[in-house]
Amino acid sequence: MIRFENVGLRYGMGTEVLKDVSFHIPPRSFQFLTGPSGAGKTSLIRLMFLSLKPTRGFMSAFGKDVSRINPAELPALRRRIGVVFQDFRLLDHLTTFDNVALPLRVTGKEEADYRTDVVELLRWVGLGHRMHAYPPILSGGEKQRAAIARALITQPELLLADEPTGNVDPPLARRLLRLFLELNRLGTSVVIATHDIGLMDQVDARRLILFDGRLEISE
Ligand SMILES: Nc1ncnc2c1ncn2[C@@H]1O[C@H](COP(=O)(O)OP(=O)(O)OP(=O)(O)O)[C@@H](O)[C@H]1O
């Protein structure tokens, strides 16, 4: 569903931060993206989320060559991808329920059509009791789960999560991992960027490993 062939990325006139990166994310697959700080994980996630374009090489998303995608097609393609950012990006003036519902609301859906889905998803991530709370009073782990629910509400085919267990204690990290595995079992491809070797060791999954912008794959 996502394919990279010899992709390079540089910001402005800087040196390349990704070099000759080639890989494929198959449907229904589960993988970790790892590597030292500054190796390029977030940059790779931004490319996969189509918020950056490669500066060289070939990249396709859902069968479309990204260099030929016109800007009007982008929102529909992005809705097929859920993303959990490192800094959550929740809106403080909206309740947890409204934050999670936002991706549906922007497509013009009425609350009556999505209310049950949002409540069910909030319960699934363990936030049923927090749906009327505003983000500033949520704990780090609750914010994390709200961001995950918001990424999942459109039922994306691909979930990208950047350090989703970076701000939570080990029991909650294990719980989030079980949630991602369950999501994958239901058919979504999952890419988890993480430094956490203990987390990766809990699952026998493919590892995409970045070193200084170059990718190695450990099956
Ligand atoms: N917007 C930007 N403009 C210029 N350089 C950038 C930008 N974003 C990232 N970089 C550079 O690109 C390189 C890769 O950064 P990136 O954030 O992708 O790494 P990372 O592996 O996600 O790091 P971390 O694990 O610390 O989050 C770094 O050298 C960083 O300084």
TrEMBL record:
<protein>
    <recommendedName>
        <fullName>Cell division ATP-binding protein FtsE</fullName>
    </recommendedName>
</protein>
<dbReference type="InterPro" id="IPR003439">
    <property type="entry name" value="ABC_transporter-like_ATP-bd"/>
</dbReference>
<dbReference type="GO" id="GO:0051301">
    <property type="term" value="P:cell division"/>
</dbReference>
<keyword id="KW-1003">Cell membrane</keyword>
<comment type="subunit">
    <text>Homodimer. Forms a membrane-associated complex with FtsX.</text>
</comment>
<keyword id="KW-0472">Membrane</keyword>
<keyword id="KW-0131">Cell cycle</keyword>
<feature type="domain" description="ABC transporter">
    <location>
        <begin position="2"/>
        <end position="217"/>
    </location>
</feature>
<dbReference type="GO" id="GO:0005524">
    <property type="term" value="F:ATP binding"/>
</dbReference>
<keyword id="KW-0067">ATP-binding</keyword>
<keyword id="KW-0547">Nucleotide-binding</keyword>
<comment type="similarity">
    <text>Belongs to the ABC transporter superfamily.</text>
</comment>
<dbReference type="Pfam" id="PF00005">
    <property type="entry name" value="ABC_tran"/>
</dbReference>
<comment type="function">
    <text>Part of the ABC transporter FtsEX involved in cellular division. Important for assembly or stability of the septal ring.</text>
</comment>
<dbReference type="InterPro" id="IPR005286">
    <property type="entry name" value="Cell_div_FtsE"/>
</dbReference>
<dbReference type="InterPro" id="IPR017871">
    <property type="entry name" value="ABC_transporter-like_CS"/>
</dbReference>
<dbReference type="GO" id="GO:0016887">
    <property type="term" value="F:ATP hydrolysis activity"/>
</dbReference>
<dbReference type="InterPro" id="IPR003593">
    <property type="entry name" value="AAA+_ATPase"/>
</dbReference>
<dbReference type="GO" id="GO:0005886">
    <property type="term" value="C:plasma membrane"/>
</dbReference>
<dbReference type="GO" id="GO:0022857">
    <property type="term" value="F:transmembrane transporter activity"/>
</dbReference>
<dbReference type="InterPro" id="IPR015854">
    <property type="entry name" value="ABC_transpr_LolD-like"/>
</dbReference>
<dbReference type="InterPro" id="IPR027417">
    <property type="entry name" value="P-loop_NTPase"/>
</dbReference>
<keyword id="KW-0132">Cell division</keyword>
